[in-house]
């Protein structure tokens, strides 16, 4: 099957975490390959400080995602992440960690993304710290990626910049609005933007949409 589901994401996007619930079922049901590309949406100019208003907005949004998908947003996350005014809302470190995985064990990037999200939203760990992210990767047995992340070299930094640039360019190309954005890539390089909302409201409809796209 010469078709791929391209997943444009940001590791600190609550909706991306929510998509991690139904997405494995989608992949298993369709047999389609997954390719992840970060967009850096909440890094650089998209990063921000955590304040009371933003924390309240995030928690309200998180509860909606939990109701739709069953993905857990714990009280520990609320107390140790959203209530911490010294911890910024910045996905750059997590994105760099996932680029390290992409370089060393690309087949484990989705697994690593889910582990980083669980570390934040369930365990209440600070994934803006490289030490936290290194430990997450080591727990997954991704030692090569953890080692690259401990002392990021120019190769890793350039690969990370390239991936984010590619993600942003593709988001513009397909007219995606934020993340998660899902794109069905055909063998002839044709790109089909998929309705991301369906993966939350009706995963079976999302599966049917993919099956239509993957039929010869």
TrEMBL record:
Family annotation (Pfam families): DSBA
GO MF terms, alphabetically ordered: oxidoreductase activity
InterPro entries: DSBA-like_thioredoxin_dom (IPR001853), Thioredoxin-like_sf (IPR036249)
Domain DSBA-like thioredoxin, chain residue ranges per copy: 7-186
Organism superkingdom: Bacteria
Entry protein name: DsbA family protein
């Amino acid at each position: 099957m010469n078709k791929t589901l391209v997943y444009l994401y940001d590791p600190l996007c609550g909706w991306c975490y929510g998509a991690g619930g139904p997405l494995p079922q989608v992949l298993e049901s369709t047999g389609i390959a997954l390719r992840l590309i970060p967009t850096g949406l909440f890094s650089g100019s998209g990063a921000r400080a955590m304040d009371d208003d933003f924390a309240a907005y995030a928690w309200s949004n998180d509860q909606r995602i939990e109701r739709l998908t069953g993905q857990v947003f714990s009280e520990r996350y609320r107390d140790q992440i959203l209530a911490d005014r010294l911890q910024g809302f910045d996905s750059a470190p997590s994105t760099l960690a996932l680029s390290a995985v992409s370089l060393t064990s690309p087949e484990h990037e989705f697994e690593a993304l889910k582990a980083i999200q669980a570390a934040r939203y369930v365990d209440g760990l600070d994934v803006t710290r490289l030490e936290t992210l290194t430990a997450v990767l080591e727990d997954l047995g991704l030692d090569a990626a953890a080692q690259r992340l401990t002392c990021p070299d120019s190769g890793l930094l350039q690969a990370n910049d390239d991936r984010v640039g590619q993600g942003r360019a593709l988001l513009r190309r397909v007219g995606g609005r934020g993340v998660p954005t899902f794109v069905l890539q055909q063998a002839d390089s044709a790109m089909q933007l998929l309705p991301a909302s369906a993966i939350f409201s009706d995963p079976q409809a999302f599966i049917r949409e993919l099956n239509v796209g993957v039929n010869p």
